[in-house]
Amino acid sequence: MASAFRSLFTASSRLSSQKFVSGEGVASVEELKAKLLPQTQTAFKKAAPQEPNESSTNATAATTGKVSESSNATAKSAAPKTVAPESGSHSLDKILKLDLVKDLDAESIGKIWIQKHLDQEDTISAVVPADTYKKMLSRSKEYPMFLLPLTHGDGVEFYLMQFAFHQVIFTSLLEYQTHRENARPFLTLTHYPELIDKGVVLMHGMVSTDPRMLTVDQAQVLTFGLQQYYVSDHKEKLQLLQDFHKRPEKFSHERLIELTEISG
Fold it and tell me: For residue 240, is pLDDT > 80?
């Protein structure tokens, strides 16, 4: 993961009244926002989409998927266009042979994508409807970070999540409190919009194993939590997201736990 985002994500803490674990860390949402939000907004601007490079004129090359979205794109082959997910991740054509799937429908592409990752350890994958992803991406520009609770033993831990254009990075709040700029990402979700014209965005999630702090099941729960706040129109959940960014004094950790499906 790009170093520019490492300092923005970190490990979890137990809920204690309405405050986070103190000490080296932060004591409230207000303090957390004061420390992180300016950095978050700067990082998001740095990850703004750029014009993709034109693909090679050799349509038979192994990576024929890259097609520029510039005015010259129409002169290229009919291979699907690819846009790198930014934040240091590879484009989809490095993972999937786009020239072999360009004529398939969304359902067939989805089956291939899920099957491809079925036996891979420490990964999750999903096929996201294009309209769903557009909604999530749009909301993330206004609310680029959030907290999600996750059950841990007999308690609850908070995980900090941050959007970096087509990536979402998770770490525990405790990790941030402990390591600050050296905080490690525990889960990274990468979305690939190259096939969005077919109505789907492909998602790949990688659970960090150095060291392992999350199980695959927990990673799936956090991913579902992301959907609950960035895709759903649930009135109270949207209010919590807005409060976290705009009215931190009204943000309720207890209500966050009550509303979020957090069991893994």
Answer: yes
Task: Please say if the pLDDT value at position 233 is more than 60.
Answer: yes
Domain span at residue 186 reads 3-52+83-259
| Domain annotation covers residue 243 | yes
Please tell me the total count of domains within the chain. 1
Question: Average pLDDT over the chain, rounded to whole?
Answer: 75
* Burial class for 78, CB neighbours closer than 10 Å (0-12, 13-18, 19+): exposed
Instruction: Please name every residue paired with 161 in a beta bridge, in sequence order, or none if there are none.
Output: 146, 170
Q: Is residue 24 part of a domain?
A: yes
**Tokens coding 112:** 């291939």
Q: Residues 166, 140: contact at Cβ < 8 Å?
A: no
Question: Using omega within 30 degrees of 0 as the cis cutoff, is the peptide bond preceding 211 cis?
Answer: yes
d(CA 39, CA 33) in angstroms, rounded, equals 10
Domain assignment present for residue 90? The answer is: yes
Is 47 in contact with 164 (CB distance < 8 Å)? yes
Domain assignment present for residue 8? The answer is yes
Tell me: pLDDT of 218 over 50. Answer: yes
Edge-to-edge strands of the sheet including 200-207?
123-129, 200-207, 187-192, 167-172, 155-164, 145-152
> Residue 155: which of 261, 23, 226, 257 has the closest Cα?
257
Residue with more model confidence, 225 or 33 = 225
Is the pTM of the predicted complex or chain greater than 0.90? no
pLDDT of residue 263: 67
Tokens of 253: 């950790």
Residue 109 tokens, joined: 């592409």
Residue type, 47: A
Least confidently predicted of 28-37, 180-189, 245-254: 28-37
